[in-house]
Write a structure and sequence with these properties.
The protein has 539 residues and is of the alpha/beta class. Helix content is 34%, strand content 24%. The chain has 16 helices and 27 strands. The N and C termini lie far apart (57 Å).
């Protein structure tokens, strides 16, 4: 992307929005409210403070701060100062966070007192010569209050669209966490895509339960109401906290992982709770089961949709579908083994499927594009698609396809397009079962079994060497269902014989609780399940 006179970075867009909204609340956390004017002043002063603390444009800074006034202000201040935040999910664990920071070699480490303790214990970021404490104070270190006092308005700089804005690490759910390079142009494209897709209006109230989404809220002029929760464990959220905020603040928007919405929907169904002010609910991070959509939909006013944007850290949003389309045909097709419909590509995104290959694809050729109905690997190109990883040439070779002056991203997902231009997700490419009769994509098989009331969720895994794997269905039971285990196994095996896509399934194992990813608590670790299944079959 080249610079144009009309380009505005996300931080500059936020400051323009803040000037308009002034005293309106930007961030609400507990009993503390921060207005847009206050947050904008924080941004300007912190930008200057970071420069006076010794950071220069292009320097990288590890940022481990949970959603708060300091997080919002620091991210926008770093953009204004030209400093590149390195964002790592602490839920990955001490060793993994250490590896991510060792790769990026940040000059600064900015975090809460708890994060600084983690740094000490894990010996993180030995290259960091600047230490800043957010939401607190520690002896011998800068803190955000000091940086605010040191800084002054006017210390910021204009961002260029092609300039590196941040390094965001993936969740590591299907391999080592990788640093995704985000440019200022990417962030700006994401903000504008969200505004257009969801008709977001300034002044709306949002409950973001994923830190990055809260930053989009601020840039779009929404009031972010931050719930009391552990953001590294969304599946353990107190649903009453979300209800309290949604009703008390009359929130129009809620964003959460499928695991969080599952918890909220079950709570709402049990107690008959309504959230009449919500205008939209969004969920991403993993496919959202129709059961979850149905439960949440019952809590909303007529006509309000539950949206499930499809994408990844490297490319978001890619496609979009709403609950009306899910519950009027797409869910039935999923239960029939067709996969999960993730909707149509969003404007500006060129999404297609290419032949399945585990090797690199050096350069794009239109002959790679498969026709509607064909199953292949999903690839995407667009202004919100990252072109590279941080110092991972092997990952670039595996996931990027050179296309003109840019790059296409291989999502690592299997999928197909239907005749109406809708994309159907069929599972991760690396997790397909390599059986003797051919490959079995996971999502199409699992959808058939997930439709049963006694099944909370299922996972198809392969046991044995690639090309001769035994398909094994692992099942997590729905709590409270009276059916006995042996009876449910017979029911599942009988169901398997009714469809060609599920017929190879001959083995069913029951698991007490699937291992899931650290970030969204929703992506199933099928590799871990496969190892467990192999050990069970050897018994």
């Amino acid at each position: 992307m080249t610079r144009t006179a009309s380009f505005r970075g996300v931080a500059d867009a936020f400051l323009e929005t803040a000037r308009r909204l002034g005293p309106a609340p930007a961030v609400v956390r507990g009993g503390e409210e921060t207005s847009f004017a206050q947050l904008a002043e924080d941004v300007e002063r912190l930008a200057g403070g970071l420069r006076r603390a010794g950071l220069e444009p292009g320097d990288r800074a590890a940022l481990l701060v949970p959603p708060s006034r300091d997080l919002y202000a620091l991210v926008f201040a770093m953009y204004r100062a030209g400093v590149v935040p390195v964002l790592v999910d602490p839920g990955l664990g001490l060793p993994a966070v250490g590896r991510c920071l060792a790769e990026t070699e940040p000059k600064a480490f900015i975090g809460t007192p708890k994060a600084h303790l983690g740094r000490f214990l894990g010996k993180w970021a030995p290259t960091a010569t600047v230490s800043v404490v957010a939401d607190g104070k520690l002896p011998g270190m800068w803190d955000t209050r000091e940086l605010r006092r040191m800084g002054a308005a006017g210390a910021g700089r204009e961002a260029r669209p092609e300039e590196l804005a941040a390094v965001l690490f993936t969740s590591g759910s299907t391999g080592p966490a990788k640093g995704v390079l985000y440019t200022h142009g990417m962030f700006a494209a994401q903000v504008e895509a969200l505004r257009a897709l969801f008709d977001i209006k300034e002044g709306e109230v949002s409950i973001p339960t994923f830190p990055l989404f809260g930053l989009f809220d601020a840039a779009l002029g929404l009031t972010s109401v931050i719930p009391r929760m552990d953001f590294t464990k969304p599946a353990r959220v107190d649903p009453m906290e979300l209800v309290r905020l949604a009703q008390g603040r009359r929130a129009q928007q809620l964003f959460g992982s499928p695991a969080l919405l599952d918890r909220l929907g079950r709570f709402g169904e049990r107690f008959g709770i309504a959230l009449p002010d919500l205008r939209r609910v969004m969920s991403a991070g993993a496919p959202v089961p129709a059961k979850v959509v149905i439960r949440v939909r019952k809590m909303l006013a007529p006509g309000v949709e539950v949206y499930t944007p499809y994408g990844a850290t490297e490319a978001l949003p890619v496609a979009l579908i709403g609950s009306e389309e899910i519950l009027h045909g797409a869910d039935a097709a999923c239960a029939d083994g067709k996969g999960t419909c993730v909707g149509r590509p969003v404007p500006g995104v060129d999404a297609c499927v290419i032949p399945v290959s585990d090797g690199p694809v050096a350069a794009w050729d239109e002959s790679l594009r498969l026709p509607a109905g064909a199953v292949g690997e999903v690839t995407v190109k667009g202004p919100m698609v990252s072109a590279a990883y941080w110092r991972r040439p092997e990952a670039d070779a595996a996931a990027k396809i050179a296309d003109g002056g840019g790059a296409r991203h291989r999502m690592g997902d299997l999928g197909r397009f239907d005749a109406d231009g809708r994309l159907w997700f069929l599972g991760r490419k690396s997790q397909r079962v390599r059986a003797s009769h051919g490959d079995m994509p996971t999502e199409g098989v699992e959808g058939v079994f997930n439709a049963l009331p006694a099944v909370r969720r299922s996972a198809l895994v392969g046991v044995g060497p690639a090309g001769a794997q035994t398909p094994v269905l692992c099942v997590e039971r729905e709590p409270g269902q009276p059916i006995a285990e042996d009876a449910l196994r017979r029911q599942l095996l009988e169901l398997a014989q009714r469809r060609e896509v599920t017929r190879p399934v001959r083995v069913v194992l029951f698991h007490p609780g699937f291992p899931v990813d650290a970030r969204h608590n929703a992506k199933i670790h099928r590799e871990t399940l496969a190892a467990w299944a192999a050990s069970e079959l050897r018994r």
